[in-house]
Design a protein that fits this description.
single chain, 413 residues, alpha/beta, eight-stranded mixed beta sheet, 13 strands
Length: 413
């Protein structure tokens, strides 16, 4: 009995010593910043000196030691606040379609904002005419700036933002998402990169521009025409397994002597124009009315295939909008004039790299035979539709992960 009391007394003393040690640690850590690693070493030393008969105490030391290891791993991942300032409509594709962030309006619609957190990155998105150099947070440290560089007028506006960045005294890390020029004339942006003495650590840019190096400059998808109000399409709006009334669709501008004119003539000559949803115009219109947008969305949702003749560039909003509704793109396989990449992976270098399940065509005179063969087996069409919907979801997720990975690697390391 006396021996048992001695053992019990010894355990009490050890427990007292342990909690005294922990109290000292907490006080020291608060004042001098002792690390969890130091405490773990103390716990292990205490465990080694403990009596072998104190198994319960040893287990408790193990459990507390493991808890501190987990806490140390978690605390090492600190939240990084990242501002995204959208000064081009493509910013909405990044925010709503890729990051899947939500939006709210303020100041009567002059500004739109949203917040989104993924792992250690906390994003604050701002866009709209109310977002100017003087109204954004002046203490910004980490920034993704979304700009338009398609025309000289847009480039001048983009420069005004890039040239102003040194005014933000706390700004440490900058990435740019750029809607590039359709003929890939984008060299003007290079002077702003850190590799050329500038402040921008990472650049994401649209189209098959030759300045992409996958080191500091990365290709970015064009996405949907958010400036025309094209929405985030919900799954229930996609009729994946139900037959559609039209084989194909094309809504767009017909330029005299263009391949688009050849496309329409090919459909009419084969008597397929009645089986396709066709609506054309002779001059380009930059904006959509609610009625015209509804017609366009209905065409995509009720057609098996969407025809994609080249414009100024092979990559167009129509590709991504068709996939949003499960309509399979049939793409004219041609590189357009300009300075875009002309190697074996072009056109649509990024989409080919990611194995987009498109149908490519060299000559629109081949279209009638292709459509007849595809339309002959309804099950094959449904399977292709399922494939395109699944692939596009995967593509957006991969783009999301790649974007975040580049920010971590180029901005925060």
């Amino acid at each position: 009995m006396k021996c048992s009391l001695t053992i019990f007394g010894g355990i009490i003393i050890l427990v007292y010593c342990f909690f005294s040690l922990y109290s000292l640690y907490a006080l020291y850590d608060q004042r001098y910043g002792e690390t969890d690693k130091d405490l773990k070493q103390n716990l292990l030393s205490l465990k080694k000196t403990a009596s072998p008969r104190s198994k319960l105490f040893g287990k408790r030391i193990n459990r507390i030691s493991n808890n501190f290891s987990s806490r140390n791993e978690t605390s090492s991942i600190r939240t990084k606040n990242v501002e995204i300032w959208g000064k081009a409509a493509i910013s909405l594709y990044l925010w709503e379609h890729i990051l899947k962030g939500e939006l709210e309006s303020e100041l009567g619609g002059l500004s739109t904002y949203g917040t989104f957190t993924q792992d250690e990155l906390k994003f604050q998105f701002r866009t709209g005419p109310g977002v100017v150099q003087s109204t954004v947070p002046q203490d910004v440290e980490n920034l993704v700036l979304v700009l338009n560089g398609r025309t000289q007028e847009k480039i001048d506006f983009a420069r005004s933002w890039l040239d102003y960045l040194p005014h933000y005294s706390n700004l440490k890390n900058i990435a740019v998402v750029l809607l590039g020029n359709e003929q890939c004339n984008n060299e003007w942006i290079l002077q702003y990169l850190t590799t050329h003495g500038g402040l921008v650590k990472a650049l994401f840019i649209t189209y098959d521009t030759q300045i992409v190096d996958d080191d500091n400059i990365f290709q970015w998808p064009l996405g949907v025409a958010t400036y025309r109000g094209f929405p985030v399409v919900q799954d229930e709006a996609i009729r994946i397994n139900i037959s559609r009334p039209y084989i194909c669709n094309f809504l767009g501008t017909i330029y005299p002597g263009s391949s688009r004119e050849k496309l329409i003539n090919s459909l009419e000559g084969a008597g397929l124009d009645d089986k396709c949803f066709i609506k054309t115009r002779t001059s380009w219109e930059p904006l959509e009315s609610k009625e015209s947008l509804d017609v366009y969305k209905r065409a995509l949702a009720t057609s098996d295939f969407t025809l994609n003749p080249v414009g100024v560039n092979t990559e167009c909003y129509r590709l991504y909008e068709a996939m949003s509704y499960g309509s399979i793109p049939i793409v004219e396989d041609a590189v357009t004039e300009g300075e875009c990449d002309r190697n074996g992976n072009s056109p649509l270098r990024l989409l080919r790299k990611m194995n987009a399940p498109f149908i490519y065509i060299k000559d629109w005179n081949q279209l009638p035979d292709i459509l007849k063969n595809l339309d002959a087996n309804a099950n094959d069409v449904v399977q292709k539709r399922q494939e395109i919907v699944k692939w596009y979801r995967w593509f957006k997720q991969e783009t999301n992960q790649h974007f975040l990975s580049v920010l971590r690697d180029r901005l925060f390391k």
